[in-house]
Design goal:
There is one protein chain. The protein folds into four domains: 100 residues, 3-Layer(aba) Sandwich (Rossmann fold); 61 residues; 114 residues, Cobalt-precorrin-4 Transmethylase, domain 1, CATH 3.40.1010.10; 142 residues, Methyltransferase, Cobalt-precorrin-4 Transmethylase, Domain 2, CATH 3.30.950. It is built from 17 helices and 17 strands. Helix 7 runs antiparallel to helix 8 and helix 11 packs across helix 12. Bound molecules: S-adenosylmethionine. The site of S-adenosylmethionine has 25 residues, from helix 13 and strand 17.
């Protein structure tokens, strides 16, 4: 994050504007709308200044800038073509620790002005950190269409009822209550101008909620996909943003965690390098306890919760304890990673079936039905197979596949750190070792791997700074 977005209270504060052009008038308008008094230093003012709202709070105090003008100012905006002149003002403001913005000269700014969607009191600010104002403005335009103009009125309604809700509804139930209100017909009534009806409905909801004091928690068992946040489902995202507690694994990437509700409690149950994972039984009971405390508990897992994710075990316990739950499927690694590697798992010419297996070694052996797996017309996808790769390839050859059967191993599929190594059952173990791959990795065996050369479309910039970070780190038992 290059900038910290903050909202400045400039009501009845005095700001200095250096410049009298049309652009300067637009900056003056922003300051005036925020309730500030504006003093302008400029030889003359563009005629737009005459049409500004709250113009009575604006005065031209000097022809040119001088240090004394900074006295008592809470912010400074400079609209000045000449870099040296602009720098003079910016430096003087910085010395006095007064926030300063210089139009079109980000290097001289201590704050930048975002694109704004004004639904006062709701404000949405969009910024590209000065790098691409056009992109920020386009994004703003899209958001404008998504946020009805009446959002401000909805917020004012909520504000008027804050005290009543506080008196009628217990603190731990308030957040859920307001979420229910904003998703209810009350919001639609306000948006369509039926404010009286909306108030009556809101009153009824307060009465109902006050009478029905028992809140029941719920568990959301959610698949977060293979790591790339773009591959989350809408439902996953909605639940991520409303859960009170997030219980997550090591495979859930940081960008995905960043999309969860900011103030939600986070419980990490994955395995640290030198530490032990929280045992499965403990996780199961933790989910039951949290839900019984009335919390909306998000159990967030990599990929799909029902594919090598132990999701089934977790909800079995919930059923036994009468805890309500919902399951949100995620894109499993086989689907997400193969797509991003350009390897279709089935293809009329190469594979008529696909099988998902775990390559996790137990007591140095695999517990797999090799006859069912090692077939020419089938694609084999192996999860958790990095450590056992040489033994896996050997076993597949022993059970009937040729040593020349194409095979690929993909590190960090769907992410900027994705790497794809292709070879065959004979060569893949040594190629993977040479490449020094890091888990999580997925192995794909079968003739479909040949298509990668033609269909590989996702080529993340391997030499970028980002590619050298490790967004997913996997404990030994998943390698
Ligand atoms: C315990 S399993 C969980 C699988 C998960 N439930 C799913 O549906 O993808 C973990 C294994 O999934 C595979 N995996 C998950 N994310 C991956 C990714 N982004 N790239 C490559 N393999 C991945 C790796 O084989 C890893 O060892």
């Amino acid at each position: 994050m290059d900038y910290l977005p903050i909202f400045l209270d400039l009501r009845d504060r005095t700001c200095l504007l250096v410049g009298g052009s049309e652009t300067a008038a637009r900056k003056a308008e922003l300051l005036l709308r925020a309730g500030a008094r504006v003093e302008v230093a400029a030889p003359e003012l563009h005629e737009c200044f005459k049409r500004l709202p709250y113009a009575e709070h604006l005065s031209r105090v000097a022809d040119v800038f001088s240090d004394e003008l900074l006295e008592g100012k809470d912010a400074v905006i400079v609209v000045e073509e000449d870099v040296a002149a602009a720098k003079l003002v910016a430096d003087a403001a910085r010395v006095r620790h007064i926030p300063v913005n210089v139009a079109d000269k980000p290097a001289l700014c201590s704050f930048i002005l975002p694109s704004i969607i004004d639904r006062s009191p709701i404000m949405v600010a969009v910024s590209s950190g000065g790098e691409s104002p056009v992109l920020a403005r386009m994004l703003r335009a899209r958001l404008e269409t998504l946020i009805p103009a009446a959002y401000g009125r909805l917020s004012s309604l909520a504000s008027r009822y804050k005290t009543r809700v506080r008196e009628a509804i217990k603190p731990e139930q308030r957040r859920a209550f307001w979420e229910k209100v904003f998703l209810s017909p009350v919001a639609e009534m306000v948006f369509s101008g039926r404010d009286v009806e909306a108030e009556a409905e809101l009153n009824a909801m307060i009465k109902d909620s006050a009478a029905n004091e028992i809140t029941r928690g719920e568990v959301y068992l959610v698949g977060a996909g293979p790591g790339n946040p773009d591959l989350l489902t809408f439902r996953a995202l909605r639940l991520m943003q409303q859960a009170d507690v997030i219980v997550y694994d090591r495979l859930v990437s940081q960008p995905i965690l960043d999309m969860c509700r900011r103030d939600a409690e986070r419980v990490y149950v994955g395995k640290e390098r030198d530490d032990h994972a929280v045992p499965q039984e403990e996780i199961n009971l933790m989910l039951v306890r949290l839900a019984k405390e009335g919390k909306r508990t998000l159990r967030l897992k990599g990929g799909d919760p029902f594919i090598f994710g132990r999701g089934g075990e977790e909800i079995e316990i919930l059923v036994e304890h009468g805890v309500s739950f919902q399951v949100v499927p995620g894109i499993t690694a086989a689907a997400g990673v193969s797509s991003y590697a350009g390897i279709p798992l089935t293809h009329r010419d190469y594979a008529q079936s696909v099988t998902f297996v775990t390559g996790h070694l137990k007591d140095n052996t695999f517990n797999l039905n090799w006859e069912g797996i090692a077939r020419q017309d089938q694609t084999i996808v192996i999860y958790m197979g990095l450590k056992g790769l040489p033994m896996l390839c050997e076993a597949l050859i022993k059970h009937g596949l040729t040593a020349e059967t194409p095979a690929a191993i993909i590190q960090h599929g769907t992410l900027p750190t994705q790497r794809v190594i292709t070879g065959d059952l004979n060569t893949l173990p040594s190629l993977a070792e040479e490449a020094g791959l890091k888990a999580p990795t997925l192995i794909i065996v079968g003739n479909v791997v040949k298509l990668r050369e033609k269909l590989g479309w996702y080529q993340p910039e391997l030499h970028s700074e980002q590619a050298h970070r490790t967004p997913l780190e996997t404990p030994d038992h998943l390698r």
